[in-house]
């Protein structure tokens, strides 16, 4: 890096670290206040609430990094403009194009940091945070239905290659991804109910089996032809064969990683987990729109750091008479908050209107990038 680039980088990184931790501390305080309503229930004490909120800090870093980069760069450039430092750089031959390239080069480590937090640290710490809370409360994951969570599982399980479709009802998903109160309804290729299994609990055994305990297996098979009155409508069509076994090994495409989707919202999952779950939903012919948008947001969101830096550069061309440093920083905060608002709003609108997931995820960043380039061209000409 050149001398002026190192100078820019040092100033921006120092301001970025300060703003990142300042905002994270603010969110930590609000998150902790929100947890106080649960403190005292079961074994959930204040210390565990602090631990839970602390484990959510990496995800807060992930959300704040683009805004922190914007505010830090605006602050640094506003200070330079106030002291006429940037004017001296321009007189010395620093063109707008060179300044923009240098700024993007400075933003690359921030982009990489965002990817690392979003893919490695954040998802793991979020799951651990949820487990701390659930274990202390002694409860399972909350579900949308009182009967628990319903998952479709399709696989080729018969010797003749016939496809089997299962609908799995998990009454309780524990923080350690073991399951309880399990009901499995199995259908053949013609969607005729062929088997009902009820298990008290289950634990996953790699690579692709669930070990169920206290299992009641009810098999429905075709009844033999009736010797008397074969045309009688009351003649049984099926007969049930029921057995009870202490343990049963069930081959399944479901994994704890798929079920762990219920522990963390899509926006806080890693790209690998989202991709695996999208594949599972696609194979079972289920709607993937929400998770595809979350997947593309995970790919594109770190690049928002570069967009925010582009938005900050025009502030270097505004002299002190155009506004004090505090006003510029406040403007940066408003721009950053508006980006977060528009980004979230587009995700919901895209889900409702089934817009293409890449377009839905990229549209807010592209819009702000265009605004930043237009602003940069305007200040450069004036």
UniProtKB/TrEMBL annotation:
<keyword id="KW-0812">Transmembrane</keyword>
<feature type="transmembrane region" description="Helical">
    <location>
        <begin position="361"/>
        <end position="379"/>
    </location>
</feature>
<feature type="transmembrane region" description="Helical">
    <location>
        <begin position="12"/>
        <end position="30"/>
    </location>
</feature>
<dbReference type="InterPro" id="IPR005495">
    <property type="entry name" value="LptG/LptF_permease"/>
</dbReference>
<keyword id="KW-0472">Membrane</keyword>
<keyword id="KW-1133">Transmembrane helix</keyword>
<feature type="transmembrane region" description="Helical">
    <location>
        <begin position="299"/>
        <end position="317"/>
    </location>
</feature>
<dbReference type="GO" id="GO:0055085">
    <property type="term" value="P:transmembrane transport"/>
</dbReference>
<dbReference type="Pfam" id="PF03739">
    <property type="entry name" value="LptF_LptG"/>
</dbReference>
<feature type="transmembrane region" description="Helical">
    <location>
        <begin position="61"/>
        <end position="82"/>
    </location>
</feature>
<dbReference type="GO" id="GO:0043190">
    <property type="term" value="C:ATP-binding cassette (ABC) transporter complex"/>
</dbReference>
<protein>
    <submittedName>
        <fullName>Permease</fullName>
    </submittedName>
</protein>
<feature type="transmembrane region" description="Helical">
    <location>
        <begin position="103"/>
        <end position="124"/>
    </location>
</feature>
<keyword id="KW-1003">Cell membrane</keyword>
<feature type="transmembrane region" description="Helical">
    <location>
        <begin position="329"/>
        <end position="349"/>
    </location>
</feature>
<dbReference type="GO" id="GO:0015920">
    <property type="term" value="P:lipopolysaccharide transport"/>
</dbReference>
<dbReference type="InterPro" id="IPR030923">
    <property type="entry name" value="LptG"/>
</dbReference>
